[in-house]
Write a structure and sequence with these properties.
Elements (H helix, E strand, L loop, with lengths): L3 E6 L27 E6 L23 E6 L3 H11 L5 E7 L7 H11 L4 E3 L2 H5 L6 E4 L6 H10 L3 E4 L7 H13 L4 E3 L7 H11 L6 E9 L20 H5 L9 H5 L11 H4 L2 H11 L8 E7 L12 E7 L4 E7 L10 H4 L14 E5 L3 E5 L4 E6 L3 E6 L5 H14 L7 H19 L4 E5 L4 E2 L3 H7 L14
Parallel strand pairs: 3-4, 3-6, 4-5, 6-7, 7-8, 9-12
Antiparallel strand pairs: 1-2, 9-13, 10-11, 10-17, 11-12, 13-14, 14-15, 15-16, 17-18
Helix pairs in contact: 1-2, 4-5, 5-13, 10-13, 13-14
Length: about 475
Amino acid sequence: MKRRKFFQLTSVGAAGLALTASCKPFKQDAEAPETGSRISADIPPYRKTIKSSFTITGNKGAGDKVILALIGAGSWGTNLILEAAKAGENIRIKYVCDVDDTRGGRAISELEKIQGFRPIAVRDMRKVYDDKEVDGVFIETPEHWHALATIWACQAGKDVYVEKTVSHSIFEGQQMIQAAMKYERIVQCGTQNRSADYALTASEYIKRGELGDIVAVHVRELLDGPVPFNQKENTDAPDTIDWDMWLGPAPKVPYNVSRNKSWVYYWDYSGGNVTSGGSIHQLDMARLILGNPDFPKSVYCAGGRYFFNDKRDVPDYQMATFDYGNFVLTLQTGECTPYMEKEGVDVRFGDIYPKWMQNATRINILGTKRMMYVGRMGGGWQVFDKGEKLVAQDKGIFPLKAHILNYIDCIRTRKQPNGNILEGHRSSVMIHLANLAYRAGNKQLLFSPEYETILNDSNAQALALLSYRKGFEITSNV
């Protein structure tokens, strides 16, 4: 029998509430009073489909070539595919796909030098998916494309490496899991710190009780700024870009170079600073170190545009507080702190630890005995006692290559990858909840971890619903 629970909402009229955050219809109870809406929600269907590994049939041996393609050839996508091409033997990049003809040139020319033949340039990712020779794809598009591109790839029998934040809504993450499990496809999320050895030693240290009971975790992504922004006027789309395909699932709007080049400032394409800046890296790493806790019980988020009153959708500063019941996690993110610095190459690839006080991306874990600082992307971790006494530490290097190699290995073995889609979804939900709480008016949202449903705010529920253009729909049946 399906498990179903009824929730009471008193903040809206019975006719004012139609859908939950997971895009399921609420069912109206016949006995509900006029002043409130009695609603029900099902446990998300993907929960019953989760598999720890996939069938061994069709796996590739170490001597077999793995054929890959890049979807989205911006600067980071180019960097990623070049790392993949150099990661090991028997890896070949067959396609470089981008809707914009002005991008991808460097990737193609460098790949030709590395592998001795020139990858094929295409605009439409569906041409890549139609090629049965392709084993896997790297999806490096704007965030609003991540889910649909991943689902299409799974349906076409391709394994996927998809950039963070992996989804654009709670519902999208659920459907990505369902597609991965249904078609038994590897989906590695671009949360590289899950392939960092020192993240695992930090987790083991905490499990031994060396910090005591964890009471608070503080995560930050405080970037240089403030950065001014001037939205340009709408124009005709240049011939070099397929603007309709660039928009994909997002609403149809005229071409605007600001939307095209600065898409991170628009809710239609991005989760704002908390996703584009990289907060998802720290949130996901914190969850890994803490033993992968499930969803929070509630989130409160406040923020705003404090420095420039321009036409950007997203705030320049946000602070969110997540209640996990037995500990609290906070997230600070923004672009108005020019005195903060990310880890440099000497930290990422050397033996030097970050300067914690002004480290822009640190995680601070407070226990009842001691405190731990954690740095992403090779920053390592250090534990301090009273009087700034250093009691334990471990260092690492930037784990990008290790993360790519884990993806390639899982294409061969069919094991779940380090950054599997289930954990990618759980971390992404934190991002979505923080943004929904901010966009609903700096509210506290109560959340059901069991039903993945916002319980107390119809405005946030409505904001969580994404509509899709014809031909780019994401449905419950993947």
